[in-house]
């Protein structure tokens, strides 16, 4: 059995990003095996995220905008993003770009196989895929699924169905993506539509919910059809692509480093921001930090200051308000984006703000529901 320096279990967004960052580091000549059951040759998802600078994948960004639209309870209109750009990256462009880059490295091997087991051994991280054994100094696992069932935690889901549609008449504003449009029946929880325009007649329209219960396929479709006719004014259109997803919005603690030779990354490593579901940009930041630490110390972990852990508390409070329906979600998001500078709101979601900014931001939120949620989170986390 050949021993690798690193095995990357799951060559999706996090696995491929990690391999890419390793090739950009002094560890570029290490032997790496990437295992995935899928060949990643379909546009199975689209990632949107925001950043100020050009990122590692700037050359393949599909669209980017300096403002976004928001339709809430008391505000409807464009939000100026300041130095941030809201960017859209198509899955297929990312897979092709990274796979092409990685193929230039003879020390990187891809194998299409289904992973049956990952376990710790004294010799290293051990993987069985399609009944073949593999071993490495470190196994980076992006295939692990969290079991969301601990009562002290908040376990909501972000679930959505999106269509890329082509309309016969101009229906989209190419310069103005819609990050949240709450002009849909809230059904007692949190529901909105997300619209990413490609040009005047093509765009991604996504019906999204933050709650605990998935809908039937027909329910998502009815909401999409209604929105497209009522708010985009499209009478006839073709559905060119369909995107569906379920993202955990959970504060269940993830074991990022379950044992000496196994490290979980991506969604499996708890990289998803619990209060928003955004994962792409956090994964890039976390993996860059992980590779830097691996180069400097030989340890494949990322350094975290205890003070940044306050954002976990903020996420839990927000989830508690949502889960217990302590305040209408559409109004919370309206206050968040319309009563704060949008760039500050994005900076807060990036966990880059100072405490004083955070206090100012909290003051725009409804006091009683958030205070009740704060005490409820403390009680649940301490006593279950
Ligand atoms: C449709 C969709 C749209 C999204 N849009 C956004 C967005 O706009 N912005 C954002 O920030 N986040 C978004 N997300 C959330 C998140 O960024 C993505 O889910 C992202 O792909 C997570 O990266 P990952 O590497 O953790 O998981 P994945 O990209 O899913 O990679 C995991 C890989 O592991 C492989 N695998 C799993 N189990 C096995 C096994 N047993 N054997 C072999 N291989 C296995 C899979 O084939 C897959 O390739 C979206 C998610 C979805 C589903």
Automatic annotation (TrEMBL):
It holds the Pfam family Lycopene_cycl. It comes from the Bacteria. This is Lycopene cyclase. It comes from Spirosoma terrae.
